[in-house]
Design a protein that fits this description.
It is built from five helices and two strands; from the N terminus they run ααββααα. By secondary structure, the chain is mostly helical.
């Protein structure tokens, strides 16, 4: 579960709506309303399913970037490979599946591409050297004490 790319969730959500919920996928994404709110100006604000999925994908993208910033080494490589697989899945579905030929899906594909670019940029950054405070120099050895002779009487 640690390495599962979060952008798989919007891909699955889109496919659930396109294949299982909407009869007409193109009109469904444009016209289906999640909720409507009356604004103080008297205008009704309506949030569509497409906009909700895109907003959710942007939130997950932000979490992916934060997660990628905290990883290094092999975990970073695995995360990048899985992110690339998700991007290829988005691209292949866009090219080959009729229900994915919508503006919403193109934006989701672009978000997956941005995830790859951000992950690469974070993995290629120069490591920040950890500076430890310089050790105090050792004190010089004590000067030799000349022997004290006491005259004998």
């Amino acid at each position: 579960m640690r390495f599962v790319p979060l952008l798989v969730v919007p891909l699955l959500l889109y496919n659930a709506f396109a294949f299982l919920i909407f009869a007409d996928y193109a009109a469904g994404f444009r016209e289906a309303e999640m909720f409507t709110v009356m604004l103080p100006s008297g205008t009704a604000f309506t949030l569509s399913v497409a906009a909700t999925i895109i907003l959710f994908a942007l939130l997950l993208l932000a979490l992916e970037v934060v997660r990628a910033a905290a990883r290094n080494g092999a975990a970073s490589v695995v995360d990048q490979v899985l992110g690339a697989i998700v991007f290829v899945a988005f691209g292949a579905e866009f090219l080959l599946v009729r229900e994915a030929a919508t503006g919403t899906f193109v934006i989701l594909t672009g978000i997956a591409l941005i995830d790859i670019i951000c992950g690469l940029a974070l993995s290629l950054r120069a490591p920040v050297p950890v500076r430890t405070p310089a050790a105090a120099p050792a004190p010089p050895p004590p000067a030799p004490v000349p022997p004290v002779f006491s005259p004998e009487i």
